[in-house]
Design a protein that fits this description.
This protein is an alpha+beta fold. The protein contains eight helices and four strands; from the N terminus they run H-H-H-H-H-H-E-H-E-E-E-H. Strands 2-1-3-4 form a four-stranded mixed sheet. Belongs to the ATPase delta chain family.
Length: 180
């Protein structure tokens, strides 16, 4: 039975995190993973190119070598193993699983905050402090999205939790009360 990309990502990403923890190189490996995530985000077809059978090994090797350049031994070995097993399409999932594990261990929560206008840095800091307390996190990283239909207030999405404090929602509630 073939494994899906998410399962493969979880297995390899967790294994890389556990190895980095054992070797005491988590932060260095994290930096490499973030750099690789950016490369795969900038070049979405990279995994397909390195997995595709139309290119020869000699044509693929320079690309792999450039990905490995400057990386820690653990990341170089991961790249080589994933390449050898023909799973380069799964690299974004592997990298995401590593980052997810890193965030979990370090108490980092990513929150998507939707507002009618962009939040100032002071507002983001205050919200981050409140969310950290509410969610029991050490650090909250906020990604602010502007949606004028919110009218006012905020919609916060973090840790599978949605807090809708928007005026749009309150108006909808008032409408429901009036319509009975």
């Amino acid at each position: 039975m073939a494994l899906d990309k998410y399962t493969i990502g979880q297995r390899y990403g967790t294994a890389l995190f556990d190895l980095a923890t054992e070797q005491g190189t988590v932060d260095t490996v994290f930096a490499d993973v973030m750099a690789l995530q950016q490369v795969f985000a900038d070049t979405p077809t990279l995994g397909s190119v390195l997995t595709n059978a139309t290119l020869t090994l000699e044509q693929k090797q320079p690309i792999l070598t450039s990905l490995q350049q400057g990386a820690t031994v653990s990341v170089k070995n991961l790249l080589q193993m994933v390449f050898d097993y023909g799973r380069m399409n799964e690299m974004p999932f592997i990298l995401a699983a590593f980052v997810q594990r890193y965030d979990q261990v370090n108490g980092i929560v990513h929150a998507k905050v939707t507002s009618a206008v962009p939040l100032t840095s002071e507002q983001q800091q205050a919200l981050s402090t409140q969310l950290a307390t509410r969610l029991g996190a050490k650090q909250i990283e906020i990604k602010n999205t502007v949606d004028e239909t919110v009218i006012g207030g905020l919609i916060v999405e973090a840790n599978n939790l949605v807090i809708d404090g928007s005026i749009r929602k309150r108006l909808a509630q008032v409408q429901q009360l009036l319509l009975g």
